[in-house]
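Researcher: Please generate the 3D structure of the following complex. Treat every line as part of one assembly.
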Amino acid sequence: MAEKVTIATVARHAQVSRQTVSNVLNAPHIVREETRQRVQEAIAALGYRASQAARQMRTGRSRLIAVRIEPTRDGINGSVLDRFLHGLTETAEAAGYRTMLYTATDRQREIATYDDLLGAYDLDGFVLTATDHGDPRTAWLADRGVPFVTFGRPWDDLDAHCWVDVDGAAGTAAATAHLLAAGHRRIGWIGWPAGSGVGDDRRAGWHRTLRAAGVDPSGLHRETVDGIAEGERCARELLADPAPPTALVCASDSLALGALQAARTTGPAIPVIGFDDTPVAAALGLTSVGQPLGDAAARCVDLLTAVLDEPRRGLAPVLLQPALVLRRTA
Amino acid sequence: MAEKVTIATVARHAQVSRQTVSNVLNAPHIVREETRQRVQEAIAALGYRASQAARQMRTGRSRLIAVRIEPTRDGINGSVLDRFLHGLTETAEAAGYRTMLYTATDRQREIATYDDLLGAYDLDGFVLTATDHGDPRTAWLADRGVPFVTFGRPWDDLDAHCWVDVDGAAGTAAATAHLLAAGHRRIGWIGWPAGSGVGDDRRAGWHRTLRAAGVDPSGLHRETVDGIAEGERCARELLADPAPPTALVCASDSLALGALQAARTTGPAIPVIGFDDTPVAAALGLTSVGQPLGDAAARCVDLLTAVLDEPRRGLAPVLLQPALVLRRTA
DNA sequence: GGGCAGGATTGGATCGTTCAAGTTTCTGGA
DNA sequence: TCCAGAAACTTGAACGATCCAATCCTGCCC
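Model: Done. Output below.
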């Protein structure tokens, strides 16, 4: 069993001091080219890797970022987080950071977990998902000066902190415009109850596009919690109207899926467009608004590393554009 | 800004030595009850948390386990890993371990990543997924004595290392038996090409159940790579036979989905059963064999922590039973 | 040839914890 | 009362990296 390779082993092998090896790693420009090369060779030959623990102890930085992994609720939307997570891990790796997971059942516990992670692992930063109005988590982190980025806007104050988001309103606007272009006028909306930032945003895109086209949206929409059965019920209600919508835009693929089933059973098929471009949508040929999740994750890492390198700078938020993925249903 | 709380701060506050505080944390039984309580109070009062980095430096253990996060391939099967990951993180947390993610595009790079993670972060262990015949990763880890558990059997030698798996054959057997009980005789199979451990296992369950019922399986099966379109094509072929199957069992929900569409378009609907109980299956009412993923993840953590506590013991592998989730399609 | 400036290199101290070994306190039996 | 032995607690050293301050070159100019 070969003994452990430390910075001292490398130094001895390259016939320099520990500090020189450290400089080669952390400040290569101050080391003479020839020396630098000799050290690099020794590092490669010995397979040396700097102990993150020792480095962290001295510098206080762990090169670790944390993300919460949520329980897959209805299973359909779970894949969104999954894709985001993958992008995040990949980009973070490229930037020299590693990703750590944690779970939390509610926000208070999540804050307790922050405390834990910061205290025990000296985490460098957090990426938060699923933020909402008056989120206590961002306040807690900001109070303590902990670097973090949210995937999702701080709906109360857009300058409150660093964020990355996808323009949901633009997505539903594109979906609505697509249906208008196909000749539809009475385009319905099935979404979530008012009050959630994401839901209101998506609804706004449909609303303003319809009004701009001179259509009165009243009576054309229903609000409910997320779910396939709920979507089906709402669609049934809308289609039972004397002047029913001839096409539907939904706040999620779950709702759209339900709507699709309602439309199939009540009469002639009508166009339905969902949101999130989940695997289910792809499997069923459901037209859906797709979020650039890989991109979003990459921008989160970019922002976070920028904050870590230069803690003072206030960084501009990032708003990405979604894209309508056309399939059979519209 | 409060200064950092270390073990020394706690020691001063409780009027004991550093070591006693350390003992309270790591070997409470050797500390007198009264002292123990005093130290615990000081810890709580100061909000002290042991620095994992410092601890790791001394002990060489990081209380960190790593899992690979795969790119969501066709998106349907992605959710399987997602659910597994969530269970893993949760159970690991309860056992005092944290989960770290990494990505890798191929097995050689994955091994390079092991080296990196072990060298830099002193990872305690790995959980591998998607193992197959002659997997170089397990050999590499075993050679170096790195603790690991695989989710998936080592198909070449069941005693090669510690593993947790779900009995796929039992799942397809249950599906086949269910169809037999419903009066079907000619039950078809759509699966993956021979050679993959998982695929062969699932196929075997269908095969042996059919034979046990006195039905000749020849001509009733098709093999293809995974995918909806592929499933549809295979189902078409089978149904075009002069004596077509009256029901289908598939190796995955993707294949089953394709088969379902083929059945819908070629004639009267026939029962179809998939595998993995993915969100897509739930959304479509597809009967499917569900894996106890949360359980599997928990057992992986159990085994891994057991190995970490007692490196010598050869631990018995775990084979979990899947469950048939009945829905509309069968 | 000597002195000097500037950059490259060196040794020592340090981060917060646990291990090993040493010291004090307590307990019980003669 | 005294002492052995155990139990409880304390002290110094070490893990492997980085930071700091001091020293050593090297080349250059007078």
